């Protein structure tokens, strides 16, 4: 009698958890209590002042005294404030100039990665970003001395070469004050744009550059067809940071010109400070700060939405 042999189905392999999953342990709920002090500090010193300022924008606010509810009167006053809206025009000039000035750090980054010697790259990179170690107030004061109409370096240099006719009261003349303010920090290499451009170009595989060179692609054509497309995401990030930074601009103008002369360098942050501390109109200053916050929030949301849309479209094209 022949023995019958039965076949058993093979058991499905049991997948063992990966090392990361095996080492991950659930965190007890009471461990999150360690974040409670941080949340309390944020609530007291960040969220409460901001929310209180929004509420006070509807009041004739007199700190320490009786305040009167005025509704939308402060916002109606803002609509008729020519200095306030003119300050946004100056912000437009500052933003456009800042975007155009990226050309210099971009060219510097492109030239730096062409150096074959790593030691030379390190030396030049260090020299280019060394000015970032100096505080911004030092930079502002140094440029203020350079712009001095009598003893400034710029006017003295022009006089020394026989160009006395080109000397100006650089920050005292409304026609030149804003442009003088914009050129503080020239040639604009020591900053975040240069670091981002250089790090991005440095991380591009050398094989791409070598393949472009074998195809006879020149430097200028390679920049437009290879380098710039690979830096598109970083450029969008810089654009987002430029929008936020421009809306918050005011430190340099406060030190060098204080918004003058004749409000030619006035920006929203300075207008808000002047209304609060010089005009003692705290309710109206809260209105200006709330409006600036809303503008910043809306523009940030738009830029983030555009970035996400571009990323989604890029991923879809990649899948195809």
Automatic annotation (TrEMBL):
Principal location listed in the UniProt entry: membrane
Instruction: Give every ABC transmembrane type-1 domain span.
Output: 91-303
Q: Where are the transmembrane segments?
A: 27-48, 91-115, 127-146, 176-198, 237-256, 282-306
What's in the keyword line of the UniProt record? Answer: Cell membrane, Membrane, Transmembrane, Transmembrane helix, Transport
Query: A GO term (biological process) for this protein?
Result: transmembrane transport
One of the record's GO cellular component terms? plasma membrane
InterPro entries with a match to the protein in the record: ABC_transporter_permease, MetI-like, MetI-like_sf
Which SUPFAM superfamilies is this protein grouped with?
Answer: MetI-like
Q: How does it sit in the membrane?
A: Multi-pass membrane protein
Answer yes or no on keyword Nucleotide-binding: no
Subcellular localization: Cell membrane
Query: Which branch of life, at top level?
Result: Bacteria
By sequence similarity, the record places it as follows:
Belongs to the binding-protein-dependent transport system permease family.
Under what name is this protein listed?
Sugar ABC transporter permease
What is the originating organism of this protein?
Jiangella rhizosphaerae
Q: What is the lineage of its organism?
A: Bacteria, Bacillati, Actinomycetota, Actinomycetes, Jiangellales
């Amino acid at each position: 009698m022949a023995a019958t042999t039965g076949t058993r189905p093979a058991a499905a392999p049991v997948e063992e958890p990966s090392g990361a999953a095996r080492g991950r342990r659930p965190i007890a709920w009471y461990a999150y209590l360690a974040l409670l002090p941080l949340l309390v500090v944020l609530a007291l010193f960040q969220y409460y002042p901001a929310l209180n300022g929004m509420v006070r924008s509807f009041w004739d606010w007199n700190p320490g005294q009786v305040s009167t509810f005025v509704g939308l009167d402060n916002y109606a006053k803002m609509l008729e404030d020519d200095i306030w809206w003119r300050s946004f025009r100056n912000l437009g000039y500052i933003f456009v100039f800042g975007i155009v000035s990226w050309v210099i750090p971009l060219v510097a980054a492109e030239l730096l990665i062409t150096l074959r010697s790593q030691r030379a790259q390190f030396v030049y990179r260090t020299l280019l970003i060394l000015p970032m170690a100096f505080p911004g107030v030092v930079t502002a004061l140094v440029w203020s001395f350079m712009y001095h109409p009598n003893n400034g370096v710029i006017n003295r240099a022009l006089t020394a070469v026989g160009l006395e006719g080109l000397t100006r009261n650089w920050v005292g003349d409304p026609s030149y004050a804003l442009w003088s303010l914009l050129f503080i920090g020239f040639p604009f290499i020591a900053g975040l744009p240069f670091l981002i451009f250089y790090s991005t170009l440095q991380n591009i595989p050398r094989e791409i550059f070598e393949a472009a060179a074998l195809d006879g692609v020149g430097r200028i054509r390679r920049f437009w067809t290879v380098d710039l497309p690979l830096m598109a995401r970083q450029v969008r990030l810089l654009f987002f940071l430029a929008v936020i930074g421009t809306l918050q601009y005011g430190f340099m103008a406060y030190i060098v010109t204080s918004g003058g002369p004749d409000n030619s360098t006035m920006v929203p942050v300075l207008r808000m400070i002047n209304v609060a501390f010089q005009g003692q109109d705290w309710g109206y200053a809260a209105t200006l700060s709330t409006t600036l916050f809303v503008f910043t929030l809306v523009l940030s949301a738009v830029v983030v939405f555009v970035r996400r849309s571009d990323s989604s479209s890029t991923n879809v094209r990649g899948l195809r």
